[in-house]
Amino acid sequence: MEKPIIAIVGRPNVGKSTLFNRLIGRRLSIISKEAGTTRDRIYQNISINDFPVTLIDTGGLSSETKKNIENDIKSQAQIAVQEADLIYFVVNAAEQLTIDDYAASDLLRRSNKKIILIANKYDSNASFGRLPELYALGFGDPVGVSSIHNTGIDELKNTTVKTLKALKFKPVKEGKKKSDVIKLCLLGKPNVGKSSLINALLGEKRVIVSDIPGTTRDSLDIHLNYNEKKIILVDTAGLRRRGRIEKGIEKFSSLRVFHALDASDIALLMLDFSEGITKQDMHIAEFILEAKKGLILVINKSDLADDNDDKLKFIAKAKSKFAFLPWAPVVFISALNKQNITKVFELAEQIILERNKRIPTGELNGFVKKITAKHIPSGTKRIRPKILYVSQTGTNPPEFVFFVNDANALHFSYKRYLENEIRKQYQFSGTAISLVFRSRERRE
Fold first, then answer.
1. Collapsing DSSP states into helix, strand and coil, what is residue 117?
2. Secondary structure tally for the chain: helices H, strands E
3. Domain 5-166 CATH class label
4. With respect to CATH, is domain 361-439 assigned 3.30.300.20?
5. What is the CA radius of gyration of the chain?
6. Which of 171, 141, 167, 166 has the alpha carbon at shortest distance from 48?
7. Intervals of the chain under pLDDT 50
8. How far, in Å, CA of 179 to CA of 185, rounded?
9. The pLDDT value given to residue 441
10. Exposed / middle / buried, residue 442 (Cβ in 10 Å: 0-12, 13-18, 19+)
């Protein structure tokens, strides 16, 4: 089952972004007393009591429609409601319900989605007295929280877990189970040739091809076989930079793109040989890296290269631009001429093996002991970080947990050193890996 989507919805200035930041554990959404600060939907993958979810912060739902931007904020919140599996409906427990609260409740009731009513700023006598009136909204028992003071959050998480179980979602405590199906997600900026590649692979016109950027709005799953391997290829809408994503339907499709990537094993990032590597390409690559997916850089329109030297120059530029992805393989194709197009499947088979690779604990600890002795981590005058133990806790993607006497004292450059050494020894070619650092629990 796909990861559930939870949308945080409510009128402006009830503390939606503060709750969002509290649940994800960092300040991502902008917080301001000025209503309407959150204009675009902001989404983040998190875990709520072992349930992986996609959490969306939205702009406030308001009955006022004086300005175009207010209409856009409202439309974005409505889009999030349409896409969500579960909705957090947030109201301000310190104030009386307003016309916007009731208008938002009417919209949510018509959505037929599962709703958890959250009474935020529930930390004063005034808020305690107003709790009974919230039953008039018709969503059952409200959950009282204070996002700022971190009270009631555990109760909210427990209520969320019960609701997700009722919706038939299941918790996941480790990486994805090994599957016989390889799921590939085709990503790239608009008009780079993603749909043309799918048509070339299928040998028939199953996907719309157009010179107009943005023809593909929804993610589309294509099932096929290659060398007796089952493959699902997901064609997605072209991704623009976040600041340039247009209103309405294109923002809706971008959320589906990110959701499709999250459900995939490997991303195929298509680049246009004639355009070179753009900032958009780099932005999409960073998002794939953050999602800890496998990655193949697919260079389309390579038939435009005059000779092999042109390709070598492109590879050199790719190594410079994508310096944070030295492990990602590069394949040159021409979707139009069907040149080298099945190479992506051959690489995908190899990458899946790497993503499911598991290193025995004893061997791994012996290796880490060796590389830390070769390069001892530096620390502060008070604390010298020391790696006590390491274990591979998951596959697809490979995840390693390092137990340290004080994880906060470990410099980011040393973490990068550990990843580089692990890759030298065990490769993990074509895939991101996850390194988690935890401090040793102090005994009282």
1. strand
2. 12, 15
3. alpha beta
4. yes
5. 24
6. 171
7. 29-41, 65-73, 174-175, 206-218, 241-253, 443-444
8. 16
9. 61
10. exposed
Residue corresponding to tokens 């390194």 = 435
Within this chain, domains 181-355 and 361-439 share the same CATH topology: no
In this predicted structure, what is the pLDDT of residue 70?
44
Identify the pLDDT of residue 400: 97
Q: What span, in angstroms and rounded, lies between the C-alpha atoms of 25 and 287?
A: 19
**pLDDT at residue number 244:** 46
CATH code reported for the domain at 181-355: 3.40.50.300
Mean pLDDT score of the chain: 82
Q: Give strand ranges (E) for 220-307.
A: 220-226, 229-235, 266-272, 294-300
Contact by Cβ (8 Å): 329, 429: yes
- CA triplet 8, 174, 432: central angle to 5 degrees? 85
Half-sphere exposure of 380 (CA within 13 A, CB side): 8
Question: Which tokens hold the place of 87?
Answer: 């909705």
Q: Quick one: tokens of 339?
A: 């040149």
| Cα gap 394→173, rounded to integer Å | 9
How is residue 246 annotated by DSSP? P
Q: 376: which 2 tokens?
A: 């001892």
Tens of pLDDT along 58-100?
876 766 544 443 444 456 567 778 888 999 999 998 888 999 8
> Which bin fits 276, alpha (ψ -120 to 50), beta or left (φ > 0)?
left
**Assigned token pair, 208:** 């719309």
**pLDDT computed for residue 42 by the predictor:** 67
217 φ/ψ sector (left φ>0, alpha ψ -120 to 50, else beta): alpha
